[in-house]
UniProtKB/TrEMBL annotation:
Residues 391-425 are annotated as: Disordered. Keywords: Membrane, Transmembrane, Transmembrane helix. One of its GO terms (cellular component) is GPI-anchor transamidase complex. The keyword Transmembrane applies. Residues 391-423 have a biased composition (Polar residues). Coiled coil: none annotated. This is Gaa1-like protein. Pfam families: Gaa1 (PF04114). GO terms for biological process: attachment of GPI anchor to protein. It comes from the Eukaryota.
Length: 619
């Protein structure tokens, strides 16, 4: 045992151990990515199931239909008559319809400002008081005037009005039902749900005149098409990558497929073979949407308040009509009405790769954690290396000693076989921390500059500001590197400490972020992975410029361009959407990009262009 401890201590003092961390870091990066690509396999994913037995999805008979179809046609005619009217004239019409049904009606004005644009409107909502309830719980039905794609919700809104009238006739409800009709799918629901939970800015959003109990769930209808449909697209991504309880999605899938004979799809995978390729593509699409952190529908605003919500969007051409869609909503509401407590038994952190297959957080989280660990491992190794002076290699010293002593190499080897000589300890040197700490701190705070600029510039200037910032972003590392070389003349040790502190912060931030928004942490970790292998190349100009070019391609500004190309929208629209998310939805993706990723990228670029000296101070 003592020999084992002695061997371990000698290994700890062996300078060759410091050569392993880069390979370990690379293994972590490749392992994290490989882990993610294993998830779509059947051995690593599970079939979905209902955890909350009280839901009983598809166990009740739905009665919506028959004469309700005539009511739907009448409401459709009423809605179309005010299609081109102003928001307030439309709400006057809707208020009369809702009051005629016997519902309590409230209205709410709001105004948001973002990127120089003003978003104003008025929400109208109605409350159906539960005959068997005491106004302590409620379910929300949302039918925005404009859909997710900014189209007129010509079937969704009449269907919601018909359902409200239909629900009023039933005495089985134990929870209040709230019908919310916002003017759009982006701002209206956010203003309403903020005011419902008293977390709104009273200078921009009015308080609600009527309220009910705690919200247990929400269903949004996004139904702009006139023809019959084939399947239902379930939109479930929330703001900042938050997700509804998996039981809600499973209930909708169960009711649609088992009771209504409808197909269901997720992540715009209109046809899904349930093979590896489609599973992987579905999972990656979900990760991209969750990583961006934007609202994918009117339901997204509810999820940050722990209100499980989804948007139902018919697609395709089939034999299902508005009545089938209404029965699906009725069945889902009947299941939510059965709940005795908030949905909590199923998963809130998951990746769906098929409507009936998922992976939970315990299975996918290690991939992001391993990625974050790669930065931490490199940071720790650089810290250790910065405190030791480089020594000549062992074979060279052994050869020199044998030559001076007049012994042959064969004699040295024979002696080494007989005796075990401990490795010489590496001389320690004093660490100069002032410059590395100051430089990393300044670069971290510099992230406030692009964060402020892109969130406060008018929309018509964002594209030009992006171009100017991208050019500045290319020149800034050269400027900082030249300034450091001419003013402070940093040593190799100081560059090691700069990289160590920068990667340590990056690894810490990403590991914490992975538990909140796995997708964003993983995407940033993959894009930032080259930073672990960047170091100064003072005597190799070609390598230095090649590394600088690689970092430019892996920069946040390049990532913004890739996102705009993927979604086929202009860079100005991407930045406008990001500013809107920051101002209205509370989206923190810009903070991660400019406050976490960009400073680490800037430090990596400065290190690559560095011209270090070899001086160090021995202890």
């Amino acid at each position: 045992m003592s020999r084992l401890i002695s061997s371990a201590l000698s290994l700890r003092r062996d300078p060759r151990i410091l050569k392993l961390p880069p390979y370990i870091s690379l293994a972590c990066i490749l392992g994290g990515i490989a882990w993610l690509f294993l998830l779509p396999l059947s051995d690593y994913s599970r079939r979905t199931y209902i955890s909350e037995n009280a839901l009983l999805p598809g166990q009740v008979h739905t009665y919506f239909g028959g004469s309700d179809q005539h009511v739907l046609r009448a409401y459709k005619h009423e809605v179309n008559s005010v299609r081109d009217k102003s928001n307030y004239e439309i709400n006057d019409k809707l208020e009369g319809i809702l009051k005629s049904v016997g519902l309590k009606v409230g209205r709410q004005n709001y105004t948001y400002e973002s990127a120089g644009d003003v978003y104003t409107g008025e929400n109208i909502y109605a409350i159906l008081q539960a005959p068997r309830g005491d106004a302590t719980e409620a379910i929300v039905l949302i039918a925005a005037w404009k859909t997710v794609d900014d189209k007129f919700n010509q079937n969704g809104l009449p269907l919601a009005l018909t359902l409200a009238r239909y629900f009023k006739r039933w005495s089985l409800w134990s929870k209040d039902i709230i019908l919310v009709i916002p003017p759009d799918s982006r701002t209206g629901t956010q203003a309403w749900v903020d005011a419902y939970h008293d977390s709104h800015d009273s200078s921009r959003v009015n308080s609600l005149p009527l309220k009910s109990g705690a919200l247990q769930g929400a269903i949004a209808i996004d139904y702009p098409q006139e023809h019959r449909f084939e399947s239902i697209h379930i939109i479930y991504d929330g703001i900042n990558g938050q997700l509804p309880n998996l039981d809600l999605i499973n209930s909708v899938v169960n009711i649609a497929g088992g009771q209504m004979g409808m197909g269901t799809a997720i992540q715009e995978m209109w046809s899904h073979s349930d093979k590896y390729r489609d599973r992987l593509l579905t999972m990656l699409r979900g990760m991209l949407n969750q990583g961006l952190g934007h609202a994918s529908g009117p339901h997204s605003s509810f999820i940050p308040y722990h209100v499980d919500a989804v948007t139902l969007q018919p697609f395709g051409e089939g034999w299902h009509d508005e009545m089938g869609m209404g029965r699906l909503v009725e069945g889902t509401f009947r299941s939510l009405n059965n709940l005795l407590e908030h949905l909590h038994q199923s998963f809130f952190f998951y990746l769906l790769m098929h409507k009936e297959r998922f992976v939970s957080i315990g299975t996918y989280l290690p991939s992001a954690m391993i990625l974050a660990a790669s930065f931490t491992i490199t940071a720790i190794s650089l810290w250790v290396k910065s405190g030791h002076q480089d020594q000549p290699s062992a074979p060279a010293s052994t050869t020199a000693k044998s030559e001076n002593d007049g012994t042959t190499s064969q004699e040295v080897l024979e002696t080494a076989k007989g005796t075990s000589t401990p490795s010489p300890s590496v001389p320690a040197v004093e660490r100069d921390l002032f410059l590395p700490l100051g430089l990393v701190a300044v670069c971290q705070f510099l992230g406030v500059v692009p964060l402020y600029i892109f969130n406060h510039m008018p929309a018509n200037m964002l594209a030009g500001v992006y171009t100017a910032f991208a050019l500045t972003n290319c020149a800034l590392p050269f400027f900082i590197s030249s300034l450091l070389t001419s003013t402070y003349n940093p040593t190799v040790q100081q560059y090691q400490l700069v990289k160590s502190f920068s990667l340590l912060l990056l690894g810490m931030f990403l590991s914490a972020l992975a538990t909140l928004n796995f997708s964003l942490a993983f995407l940033v970790g993959v894009m930032a992975s080259p930073l672990s292998f960047m170091r100064p190349w003072p005597n190799h100009a070609a390598v230095r410029w090649a590394c600088a070019a690689i970092l430019q391609l892996a920069s946040p500004t390049a990532a913004l361009y890739f996102v705009s190309s993927y979604f086929n929208i202009s860079i100005g629209e991407v930045l406008k959407e990001a500013a809107f998310g920051w101002d209205v939805w509370g989206m923190y993706t810009p903070v991660i990009i400019w406050g976490v990723w960009w400073p680490a990228w800037l430090m990596g670029s400065v290190i690559v262009l560095g011209q270090p000296t070899a001086k160090s101070k021995s202890l």
